[in-house]
Amino acid sequence: MQTTRLHTIRRGIAPVLALLAFGTLAACGDTIPEQALLGGGAGALTGAVVGGSVVTGAAVGAAGNVVYCQAYPGRC
Questions:
Q1: Residue 23: closest CA among 52, 43, 37
Q2: Contact 9, 1 (CB under 8 A)
Q3: Longest dimension (CA), the chain
Q4: Tens digit of pLDDT for each residue in 16-28?
Q5: Rounded distance between C-alpha atoms, residue 53 and residue 33, angstroms
Q6: What is the CA radius of gyration of the chain?
Q7: CB atoms < 10 A from the CB of 12, how many?
Q8: Residue 60: which of 70, 74, 46, 75 has the closest Cα?
Q9: Which of 24, 4, 12 is nearest to 50 (CA)?
Q10: 17 vs 41: CA distance, rounded Å
Q11: Taking a C-beta distance cutoff of 8 angstroms, is the pair 42, 24 a contact?
Q12: pLDDT tens for each residue of 36-68
């Protein structure tokens, strides 16, 4: 019973933590390396929380944050 309950709790928390991790993308960073670092950190955290690949999450997060910040510098 404990395992099932823990699994249910983890399942409910994962989307919340993922949302918080994506929310950190709003803090873009001032330079491209900062943008990549912040995005990579958010992506890695998201990958870990949802049970995916941390490395893939970091790569996607870094690239996504750099692209977004370069396309919309006024929003960062």
A1: 43
A2: no
A3: 51
A4: 666 665 665 556 7
A5: 22
A6: 14
A7: 9
A8: 46
A9: 12
A10: 13
A11: yes
A12: 999 999 889 888 888 889 999 999 999 999 999
Joined tokens for residue 34: 């900062």
DSSP string over 17-74: HHHHHHHGGGS--SSHHHHHHHHHHHHHHHHHHTTS-HHHHHHHHHHHHHHHHHH-GG
φ, ψ at 11 (rounded to 5°): -65, -35
Distance CA 34, CA 41 (A): 10
Q: How is residue 76 annotated by DSSP?
A: -
Residue entry with tokens 């997060």: 61
Residue 73, pLDDT score:
86
Q: Is 11 helix (H, G, I), strand (E, B) or coil?
A: helix
